[in-house]
Amino acid sequence: MQETRLDIARIQAARRIIDPIFLDTPLYRCEALEPGLGCTVSIKLETANPVRSFKARGTELVASLLAGKGSRAVVCASAGNLGQALAWSGRGRGLDVVVVASRHAPAAKLDRIRALGARLELVDGDFDMARERAAAIARHDGIRLVEDSLDIETCEGAATIGLELADARDDAVPSFDAVLIALGGGAMATGVGHVIKALAPGVEVICVQPLGAPAMTHSWRRRRVVTTDSTDTIADGVAGRRPIPAVLDDLLLVADDAVLVQEASIIAGMRMLLDHAGLVVEPSAALGVAAVLEDRDRFAGRHVVTIVCGSNVDMDAYHRWIGAAPVHGP
User: Fold this and answer.
1) 4-16 burial by CB neighbour count: b if 16+ within 10 A, else e?
2) Phi/psi at 113 (nearest 5 deg)?
3) Segment 263-278, tens digit of pLDDT
4) Which of 3, 8, 10, 288 could make an S-S bridge to 306, C-beta 3.0–4.6 Å?
């Protein structure tokens, strides 16, 4: 058995550190989605919290660790959600938080980072250029760099979602047999996947990524890091070009499959979540629904859980996408 960076005992201990406002998020069967998807569907809703994404599960661990060591400053690169989460967790623990982001990131995400008290620095390039700038700031200022997915706390914080799913599966009838996880840098996929494979090994772990940002999926398929020169997707939260080798190693141990979906399916998934679940979500959060839309036969007759991982979306763009989306299902 290959070694993994993740540890179940630490993940269980994380529940005592993370602010309860981010824990025990709703998990429920959404029957209204089922006619359009052709399978039993449950939603794990990670948007009903102060930062509207799952990311604070990880930043709570990071900020608690830093504050415990007497650190006063921290920097991260973010597509938007990690920056909000770190700003929230850092503010509560007296940390000075610097967030580096692309100036092309959704304005709603950037505005919330500022509102939560972080210092925001914008770069002209994409997320991977923001990563380079954040690393330079950390070196120059001698402060802690938080790297999503590379820092094990971000993975093990996200992994507490898996604990909640495993606990629910013990009680659920019928129990789910697949979990659909948005795949970007890999923190949520490796974290949730690790727990599911440890505690509910019969459940299929399926990672979903946009066709326009396929680096981690190509890496998983080839079992080595594959980088891309650019990305082209509305799902900004998962639009990375350079997978982290250690994260890929962890993913290879737990993912049963990694699939790529088209932009039209992501938009259709967002529309379905609005029309049939009453949920306004960002594109990354609709990846699981998109995967079912593109391969109904695979999921027919099954019970899938899709993790709705974020709702920080630029509303002008959202209305453009949804207005152009075809209606799927009854």
Assistant:
1) bebeeeebeebee
2) -60, -45
3) 999 999 999 999 999 9
4) 288
